[in-house]
Amino acid sequence: MRTLRSALLLAAMSLAPAAACVRSSNTPAPEDAPTYLRVENQALSDATVYVWQSSSRLRLGRVSSLSTVTMRIPSSQIFGPTPLRFQLDFLAGNRTPLTESITVVPGDTVVLQVPPQ
């Protein structure tokens, strides 16, 4: 059974991606467990995905329009419970929405849902 770790987040600039954390069990994950971001892009534009940890921005990869991709968040960005933000830079247009902060721990999978524009 999967447990939902966090509620929805809102992003800026009239796009409201939602993020949630899911862990496969109730047992704590080890500190070196891989952490993932799953982006479900329902928009009609490709986007570059970034993670913000404090004031540091790191490119995770690219998600195509109308697709879902899972990206590994580098362990260098996770130090126990770590507040992270996620940013999308759409290739068509000038929108770069940024989510609110979400606390992520090793072993989490963060799901970012990008609605159609």
Describe the fold and architecture.
The relative contact order is 0.34. The chain is built from no helices and nine strands. With 117 residues, the chain is an all-beta fold. It is globular, with a radius of gyration of 13 Å. It has a single domain (3-22, 33-114), classed as Sandwich (Immunoglobulin-like).
What attributes characterize this protein structure?
single chain; 117 residues; mainly beta; Immunoglobulin-like; four-stranded antiparallel beta sheet; 9 strands; globular; disordered N terminus
| Tally of contiguous helical segments | 0
Elements, N to C (H/E): EEEEEEEEE
Q: End-to-end distance, in Å?
A: 33 Å
Largest sheet composition: 5 strands, mixed
Tell me the count of domains.
Answer: 1
Give the CA-based shape: globular
CATH structural class: Mainly Beta
Class per helix and strand makeup: mainly beta
CATH topology: Immunoglobulin-like
Describe the secondary structure blueprint for this structure.
Blueprint: E1 3-4, E2 18-23, E3 35-41, E4 47-53, E5 56-63, E6 67-73, E7 82-90, E8 102-104, E9 109-114
